[in-house]
Specification:
Strands 4-3-2-1-7-6-5 form a seven-stranded antiparallel β-sheet, covered by helices on one side. With 429 residues, the protein is of the alpha+beta class. It has three domains: 3-80, Roll (PH-domain like), CATH 2.30.29; 100-200, Pleckstrin-homology domain (PH domain)/Phosphotyrosine-binding domain (PTB) (PH-domain like, Roll), CATH 2.30.29; 213-409, no CATH class. The protein is globular, with a radius of gyration of 25 Å. It has twelve helices and 20 strands. Helix 2 crosses helix 3 and helix 6 crosses helix 10.
Length: 429
């Protein structure tokens, strides 16, 4: 039986003109809500969860805006607004949790809590009562009356259990800070669960590295496991700090059997004195075997050319080399390399090294599992927007020709000087 609430609703356009005003009901589906008037012939209007931009709840009123600039006002809940909000966020958060790749691995435990989130700039946001779920490779925080969010273990920079304040402090690679509190008597259980998730991830990666990189101590491999975690690309030169022999061994593993690509990489790295070179690994256990399947990929940052180059490095049959702008319009490319690496790392790890979101257009993506991600994940949109082109050249000379073309296209665009009236032109929100 469908979940529904009797309401009065109004639909307004961007200028505030009332387009529809009816007495009826709001009906929930797992992907959307439907606003319909009374009568069997009124099929109502569907509003997808992905289209809802902002929401606001009053005493007996619920207001939301869509990305298409429509505004909906729901009222006359007859005292059931609190229950409506519970169901609205429950359905909406379940939908996004499933479609934004938040649940990674098995569920290891869940606990009631409260959460507070802050970014690099701006005030902290209190998310109120929540449920925190620990998965093998991610942490999902589900507020009762706010949007669900996720912390992927591969991109968790620091975490600390404050035993004096009974708070879990988390900082991500993107600079976000999350404080989890009011775990109550489950504080130690939550601590044990998170440590178990991290230990399981590092132990798996450590065992895999031990199979593909022989000759190194477990201490060295553990430091490498911490650097790559679940497949992130790491700066090759930084590996010298772990072990002097590690960079050459990692490069050998990444480019084994692909000498043509090595020549292309040597050419690219010769173009910029400030170049930075990164290598990432996806290590997977082969079923019914002790073998490890290695998928390696590289990133080559050329700040002076405003280019980031990416390719699959240990598959000689995959000749594709992708080119991205580091800075889209204005800025200093060398200052943005770290953010660009994080952006591509997130795409490669979270989407399991599938480049479909990059190569398909929006119409094609709507038919795939990425249809919601392309609308809601900012780093994926940046990944696509910054894409310049792909070279599939087999020989080096043709690759150089392709590269020159992409270098020209990646030049930082300088915006024309804006006039006073353009700078202060009002915009409708």
């Amino acid at each position: 039986m469908a979940l529904s609430y009797g309401v009065k609703f109004k639909k307004l356009n961007f200028s505030g003109k009332v387009l529809v005003e009816k007495e009826g009901e709001v009906v929930f589906d797992r992907k959307y809500l439907r606003l319909k008037g009374k009568g069997a012939n009124d099929h109502g209007e569907i509003v997808n969860f992905t289209d809802i931009k902002e929401v606001k709840a009053g005493k007996d009123e619920f207001v939301f805006n869509t990305f298409s600039s429509d505004k909906f006002i729901l009222s006359k809940f007859s005292g059931s607004l609190e229950n409506f909000l519970d169901d609205f966020y429950h359905m909406k958060n379940e939908f996004f949790a499933e479609n934004l790749f938040m649940k990674r691995g098995m569920l290891m435990g869940q606990f009631d809590c409260t959460a507070e989130v802050s970014g690099q700039t701006g005030p902290s946001l209190n998310k109120g009562k929540c449920v925190i779920q620990f998965y093998e490779e991610s942490i999902m925080v589900i507020p009762v009356h706010a949007d669900v969010f996720v912390i992927h273990l591969s991109f968790m920079k620091h975490h600390r259990f404050d035993e004096d304040e009974y708070v879990l402090n988390i900082e991500t690679d993107s600079g976000a800070k999350v404080n989890i509190s009011k775990l109550g008597s489950h504080f130690e259980d939550a601590q044990t669960t998170l440590e178990k998730c991290l230990e399981k991830m590092y132990q798996r990666v450590l065992n895999q590295l031990n199979n593909v990189l022989s000759g190194f101590s477990l201490a060295v491999l553990l430091k490498l496991a911490y650097a790559i975690r679940d497949g992130r690309a790491v700066l090759v030169n930084s590996l010298k700090k772990i072990d002097a022999a590690l960079p050459s061994k990692v490069m050998e593993l990444a480019f084994s059997g692909n000498p043509e690509l090595e020549k292309k990489i040597q050419y690219l790295r010769s173009l910029d004195k400030e170049e930075q070179f990164f290598v990432g690994f996806s290590l997977q256990n082969v079923s019914d075997s002790r073998d490890i399947r290695v998928r390696a990929w590289f990133l080559c940052a050329l700040p002076s050319l405003n280019i980031m180059v990416m390719g699959i490095s240990n598959n000689p049959t995959d000749q594709r080399v992708f080119f991205f702008r580091i800075v889209m319009e204005q800025g200093i490319a060398s200052d943005k390399v770290e953010a660009k690496v994080l952006e591509i790392n997130q795409c490669m790890v979270i989407f399991d090294y599938d480049l479909s979101p990059l190569l398909k257009n929006k119409e094609e993506l709507r038919k795939t599992k990425y249809r919601v991600a392309i609308l809601r994940m900012a780093f994926l949109r940046l990944f696509r927007r910054s894409f310049v082109g792909v070279s599939q050249a087999v020989d080096l000379e043709r690759f150089k020709t392709d590269s020159d073309k992409f270098f020209s296209q990646a030049k930082i665009l300088q915006r024309p000087q804006q006039r006073h009236r353009q700078i202060f032109r009002p915009t409708l929100k």
